[in-house]
Amino acid sequence: MSDITEPPIARVDVVRETLHGITLEDPYRWMETEGEEFHHWLDGQARHAREYLDALPHRSRLLTRIRELGGALTRYFGLAMAADRVFALVREPDARVPVLTVTEADGASRVLFDPGTVPGDGHHTIDWYVPSPDGRHVACAVSASGSEDSSIHVIDADSGALRETIPPTTRFAFLSWLEDSRSFVYHRYVEQHRLDSRSFLHHLGADPAQDTVVLARGLNPHVELTPRDRPFLVVPPRGEWMLAIVSHGALSPWPWTSEQLSDCTVYVAPRTGLADPDACPWRKVAGAADGVTAFATSHDTLYLVSHRDAPRSRVLAVPLAAPDLSRARVVVPAGERAVETVRVVGDRLLVRDLDGGVSRVRHVPLSGGEPADLPMPMDGAILEWTTHPERPEALLLVAGWTDAPRLYRYDGQSLQDTGLAPRSPVDFGAVHARTLYAPAQDGTPIPLTVIHHKDLELNGDNPAMLTGYGSHGFIDLPEFRPEMLAWYERGGVYAVAHLRGGGTYGREWHEAGLGPRKEATITDFIDCAEHLIALGYTRPGRLAAEGASSGGIPTSGALVRRPELWAAMAMHVPTVNATRNEFTESGPINVPEFGSITTEEGLRALLIIDAYLRVHDGVPYPAVLLTTGLHDARVPPWQPAKLAARLQAATASGRPVLMRVEEHGGHGAGSTRDQEQALLADVLAFILHASDGS
Description:
This protein is an alpha+beta fold. It folds into 3 domains: 15-69 and 427-692, Alpha/Beta hydrolase fold, catalytic domain (Rossmann fold), CATH 3.40.50.1820; 75-167, Beta Barrel (Thrombin, subunit H); 168-417, Methylamine Dehydrogenase, Chain H. One of its GO terms (molecular function) is serine-type endopeptidase activity. It catalyses: Hydrolysis of Pro-|-Xaa >> Ala-|-Xaa in oligopeptides. It is an enzyme of class 3 (hydrolase).
């Protein structure tokens, strides 16, 4: 690779600041302005990375195999039901991006909307969609080049015609149609910034610029909001009530608008209050301290999943007309399983649990009674579920590490395979997945899923890739990735560390790696790596790590604490300079999770996870691959860029530090098929080359 151009050297301009008696030195603060010099440097880094990756000996063959495997399976996801129609996002094997489809009552399916037809630079994708109650219209959020900065396209579900468009600044799926199916409420940011966002009421055919503000700071004295809060309005498909969900921190993306909540305040009001938003009689039901993480409604009852006084959560019920949480009825008490979320289906409440990383479902009559287990078709994960707004019916998409997703229908009694999701032609019969438990430094057993070919020899010489996330209570659910067979065929091991800070065991697992306890997330990751080595799966010269977004915290943390442990490290759109995170667009909403430099405790918590400030000159760091997308709305390119510049200047190993740039990409959501496959080929080839040379 001697003919590959050298990466440009970043200018050093040290900024020193003292906060709470602690002095910080930042040599590349100038990158944060993202001016002409930064983009010129980034362009040079992108060219160098592309030349290096394209020249890797394994890349071409890996990409060919990944395309073969990825082109074999049609993917179904983003399910919704309305009237006699079933909607889904579908990616055919030869399609760049998923399209929106509709299946009629007679079983006939058709493409309703193809985002590839939207004009403009780059590519467009559907971020989320919501059908109207009568199934005649669909509101689709569409963004360009993975930016997640969505415009709302209203599609006629009969003809597929575009009825109207609401300009960008929508990023969450908190859109609720009203009963007339000609009006909806939705959330949007104002003037392209994240503060003082609002919820609006829109009537089809009206000018979006004239939409009525229905939730906003200072609008209604009953709803308390700070500039950072996001006020979402939810109009359930049944009953006479509506909810206001005020988010004080980060939220998971669609389709989880009624679950995976955190740091939220919940209000209830009659729907008639929409006629006068200023005077709407909102009533507070639960505050952030009540730990509400999911909700569902029947005609007259609000069901809440809460972790207050229940580390693994329980289900409470209150009347919508008198929602006094202190007098709530316990529908499902706390137990060994972590309660994730609930849905109302007819006269029953479906309860989704997490049992040591495996999804379970219970159902209980709304009139009361003991929850009963619903037999599951496999020990895997419920990737998503959706309920019919009127009929006692639900659809569940279930998958495992080695089992392709299958779509099941719940009819109030049992699960039946619909046959709508095709079986995978990719044979995983020779691939084995098992869950181990790695002993943490404090003795806590950390679940560790290990996947590999059944004939793998535990000789300590296998290439292995360890990944983990460990933030926001996120759960590492089993995921079927047919393209990974290209890794297993080469004797590769893939391991998923279910770290503290995540949600494997509910809120208590999240809190064990939250804020000042974040060191546990990083040390858990290191302990899982050492457990793989101790069991003979791999050795330091053949072990790599991978992480994305907040998964950059355990990976970069392990990189700077134990550089000798890794042959390679791949970090995608990672958070690595945490002490500067709250100055980004999405930074303020992450303060409850990670901390703030405005307090000494917050600063010390952020210093735990700021790998950029922990890089030292003259250390032999492993090979490192960092990625970014120029349209990333969550982690700006300067975050991984600063770490790349610092590592390139500091490392004494002679191993590469690459900065891979996706010109028409964002945080990962909305990537095309070709982008996903090229990234995986780059990562696997990079790791194999680094471990082959060890």
